[in-house]
Amino acid sequence: MLQKAASYTTRLAWSTYRSQYPKYLLSVIILKLDPYLEQKLSRLPEDRVRELLIRSGHHRLLGLSGDADGGLPSKSGPSGVHLIDPYIQRYIDEEIHNSLKLQQDIVRDSIKSELDDIVQHSIRSELPDLVDHFREEIADEHKIKVCELGEVVQDSICEIQTVTNDGSEVIGDVTTAHIDELDKQAVEAKKALKEMALKLTASLRASFDDLQGSRHEKQGTHARCRSV
């Protein structure tokens, strides 16, 4: 979000700068350089200034014609014309280089200052609207995510309920089957106990009858013995 805002603000600021300051700023910067160049040139002798103008391609200002290098001294030139001193030549080259670098620095600093002001103004004027716009986007995205999360939770709840219901049915079936099996086993156990009780009763009755028969036989034997 911040990258989008910064990119939009920079483009807007540069467009505003180009529309408001097409050539005026550059002209002002060049005018500011004139006193500096004038001061530098005033320290040089006239012949050195002449050499500098010829070397920089401004020989027409001296009323010369032909090639720009025609007025420059050379090793094959006419006698009486001395070659420029290497120290002076190096000094001139350094001055030209320093002047160009100073111009570039001034132009860059001026443009940067103006551009910074425009960017700050654009940020102050455009940022509130951008913040509101992105705040609305974030709020909408938040609502969408909340709805999606609610749907996921609801689906999960339904799935859990389905599994629980299925599990309850399975548990109920298993429980019923066990209860039926227990009832069946209880009935069989009761039947077996009843049969065992009947057998035991019959066995006891038979034993009692045998005991009674033995007593009667003993009593009859004693009676016959007495009669004899």
Salient structural properties:
disordered N terminus; mainly alpha; 4 helices; 228 residues
List the helices and strands and how they pair.
Layout: H1 2-20, H2 24-42, H3 46-55, H4 86-227
What report would you give on this structure?
The longest helix is centred in the last third of the chain and has 142 residues. The protein has four helices and no strands. The N and C termini lie far apart (140 Å). The chain has 228 residues and is an all-alpha fold. 83% of the residues lie in helices and 0% in strands. The chain has a domain of 139 residues.
Helix count? 4
Query: End-to-end span in angstroms?
Result: 140 Å
Largest sheet, in brief, is: none
Low-confidence stretches: 1-6, 20-31, 65-83
Shape assignment: rod-shaped
Structural class: mainly alpha
How many beta-strand elements?
Answer: 0
Question: What would you report as the Rg, rounded to the nearest angstrom?
Answer: 61 Å
Give the percentage of residues in beta strands. under 5%
Order of helices and strands: HHHH
> Helix share of residues?
over 70%
Global mean pLDDT: 70
